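Sequence in, structure out. Go.
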Amino acid sequence: ENCLQIGVINKIKVWCSLHAPNPPLFFWELRKVFISQRGILILAAVLYFAAASGLEYRYYSYVDKDREYYYEKYAGVITEDKITKIQADCEELTNLYFEAADKIKDLREHDPENERLLTLMQTCYDLSGKIMVLEEIMENATGALNYTLETGVETQLVKPDAYERLFITDVSTTNKNSMFLLLGIIGLFSGLLACEKECNMTLWLQTLFKGRKTLLFRKLGVIALTVPVLVLGVSWAQLYQVSEAVGFNDLHATAQSIALFREIPFTISIGGYLALVFVIRMLFAFLVGVLVAGISALAPNRVLCLFISFVLLVVPMVLALTGIVNMI
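Output:
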């Protein structure tokens, strides 16, 4: 009876193994990286620390009502007529400023106790702020109009706060994100090929009908699938902070509308340029992942691959960011 039960159970197992769906090789590579090698923990740790680092402080953003008003007033396509209007408003405010300044000077000389003195001083202060805003807008608009006249590409008046903060002011967060990205790539892909040597599978895999070619392409697929998650995962906190503080405005406008992007040699929208930046970051991250996988193929085990990758990739970056290289 026991033999009969064992035979039935074996037949059921054989039938299940024959009819059960067979996951593709790509699935097993994902399982190896994220489950067997604890890659899911590495990914979660990198994303958590990147988010915690980006959200540990709030971006400060002072809302200048005059600045908001004038950028909204002159928003849209930049033309010579619009430049003329901006210049006329700036001259009018400048004249009012000097008139108020003359009155303040006269009152200080003849009637320093006059109550109008404080009012006039506040008026001068308000006018100087508006003049500074208009001069900034004038500079941005003039540069954009000159680009339009040279290239024929339409430009608009765009408030550059979010983009200057993302690419210039907050470079420290960008550097930290790059470090987290690099550590994540090394941690995830250091065992991608080294595990074959650790399990003594290299020679056996080379004897297969298609050799290791198919397997290698699947490993590259794992890198290609994981890299976008890493890049966007380590960057979302910074993007969220900038969006909450100042907002990503005028994404449809031509990128050259902003002085920061005026050297871009091709026409593209601001939103398109941001997308392109992240695509390029993903491409470089993919190449770094391939490099780590290559080191993994040469290293006898994962630990040695981690050490070599850290020395070759992380240490030079740390030295560069800390400025030690410039001191040597």
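Check: The longest strand covers residues 76-77. The mean pLDDT is 84.
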